[in-house]
Amino acid sequence: xxxxxxxxxxxxxxxxxxxxxxxxxxxxxxxxxxxxxxxxxxxxxxxxxxxxxxxxxxxxxxxxxxxxxxxxxxxxxxxxxxxxxxxxxxxxxxxxxxxxxxxxxxxxxxxxxxxxxxxxxxxxxxxxxxxxxxxxxxxxxxxxxxxxxxxxxxxxxxxxxxxxxxxxxxxxxxxxxxxxxxxxxxxxxxxxxxxxxxxxxxxxxxxxxxxxxxx
Length: 215
Known about the structure:
The chain has about 220 residues and is α+β, with helices and mostly antiparallel strands. Helices cover about 35% and strands about 15% of the residues. It is built from 7 helices and 7 strands, in the order H-E-H-E-E-H-H-H-H-E-E-H-E-E. A 4-stranded antiparallel beta sheet has the order 4-5-7-6, with helices on one face. Strand 2 (about 40) and strand 3 (about 50) form a beta hairpin. The longest helix is centred in the middle third of the chain and has 20 residues, at about 100-120. Residues about 65-80 have low confidence and may be disordered.
């Protein structure tokens, strides 16, 4: 269970990077935050420390004695089970369009770029990594949401929808607005996906077929 930080630890939390949650402090302070469930240590060099979701909530709340009442997993929101990008068509969740959601999306995208860097011998972040190839729908949806595209709601209103396809290395992206569909294509191409626009034979609806670029 996450515990309330001391005044000194609160100052470290308040000074964390607003987007990534990266922390700076003494090793003793950082280790104490990890023990309290408010930070985690990245497993790869340089082993920086980052806020957990509980730590982010402490940072966003007024200074005081209250602490989160539930335990939080000490894992980055970038590619673990804590965070899920909006694929389109989900039920609305209160607050999912607010600043907390925006922070989570940005943190997840920065974490994914860091995963790309760490898993490439040249440190490049221009092409999708192995995790993205194994989680095509979530990876494409994260790229779109992080770029500011709006996912469709449960009633099928305007917005993108990312869906699996029979092809093992490709996803389909639907967006009823033609201009928005082309914007989605530009976003995916910019972050390392190959994209082609197609028409469904039965409905004549336009959609994108996107796959991670290999070279």
